[in-house]
Amino acid sequence: MRVSGLNWQGLMEQLQEALPYCEVTDQSLAYFKYPRRSVKMNLPVKMDDGQVRVFQGYRSVHSNARGPSMGGVRFREGLSLHECEVLAAIMTLKAAVADLPLGGAKGGVDVDPETLSAHEQEGLTRRFTSELFELIGPNEDILAPDVGTDSQHMAWIYDAFNEGRGTSINGMVVGKPMALGGSYATKDARGQSAAMVTARALEDSGQGVKNARIAIFGYGDVGSKAARLLQAQGALIVAVSDRHGAIYSSSGLDLPALAEHREQGGSVCGFALDISKDELLELDVDALILAFDFGTVNAGNAHKVRATYLVEATNRAVLPEAERYLRERDIQVLPDLVAAIGGVVVNYVEWVQSHTNFFWTADEIEAVAEQHINRALDDVMNVMEQNGIDMRTAAYVLALSRLNSATEMRGVYP
């Protein structure tokens, strides 16, 4: 269900809706409209069969107005530089909403990682890192896991960077294994923020979380964490999906039993009533949490969505043309700039720990993340109420205002 709607024009059109509600100078807007730096790389890698294959790699830094850039490295077939530039801009906005001293970046490789052996993935990761030696660092550009990468890839980046430069620095990459200075809660931080935002929306609507019907599209680390947190508050998780398919139970799924089923069979399928992933998107539920990838809800399927709330637990899960249509139907989108903010918050915490070599416990990190998420949500909702606007527009207003302040104070290099 890959779509091609992740584009700069759509982002700019949504930003235009925020401009009447904030004071942003033309100078600041000019800075935002263009990435600070975009790099395209040819990455030759020796494969297991002895042949050399050349991959396309990218890294885009959108902004460092508020601090060094930070953003994921994704291994995804069809990845383009344009996609990286749009996602880098979204990371800039997300960090500003969370009021963190960071800018946004994104990068990766056009590859399906499942077609590569572990040895080939390591070679590709190290080659990607070596091409960025002079551009990345704890005070320049910080790499993080994303679609198709995990803590092991971050460990390879950590080693390649330090071996190549003769250093022992760990703050230039986050999402690392614990043994290399990684942080607790990295995997499921976006699930925490998605659950918190969903619960707040349900409570504010008067319905409450108890017995609310929730569907999860993308039952990985993020989706499963959101499901567990919401179920603990009394919600019914009625449907979940993975890359193999989807399941449904009107009375709610037994999540611990589902975890055992997945561990044994490698999929959620067969645990309850099997349905298609498209059928999951069409369920009449109180909240549909989108935890897969961008473009899950688009112009082609938005008319079939019946959920009261769509929660973007991943970047750009609802494309702009779909969101305009959903707004006309009074279906509310809880945007990535708030619902997926937990990831950048916990990555920031790991970055701080790397700088200080002082590490917190899992409970302390979760409490810090909750504090940042609640503060960001409060700030966005205050802007919503003051201006009578939707949550995404309010998040843009807040982010652009903070970016404008930083840009104006720093000035323009003559």
Structure report:
With 414 residues, the protein is an alpha/beta fold. Among the domains are: 34-169, 3-Layer(aba) Sandwich (Rossmann fold); 189-339, 3-Layer(aba) Sandwich (Rossmann fold), CATH 3.40.50.720. 44% of the residues lie in helices and 17% in strands. The protein contains 14 helices and twelve strands. The chain has helices at residues 8-18, 26-32, 81-97, 118-130, 151-165, 189-204, 221-232, 255-265, 277-281, 320-328, 336-339, 341-356, 362-387, 391-410; strands at 37-46, 52-61, 69-75, 103-109, 141-145, 213-217, 236-242, 245-248, 273-275, 287-290, 309-312, 332-334. The strands form two sheets. Strands 9-8-7-6-10-11-12 form a seven-stranded mixed β-sheet, with helices on both faces. A five-stranded mixed β-sheet has the order 1-2-4-3-5. A hairpin with a 5-residue loop joins β1 (37-46) and β2. The protein is globular, with a radius of gyration of 21 Å. The chain starts with 7 loop residues before the first helix and ends with a helix. The mean pLDDT is 93.
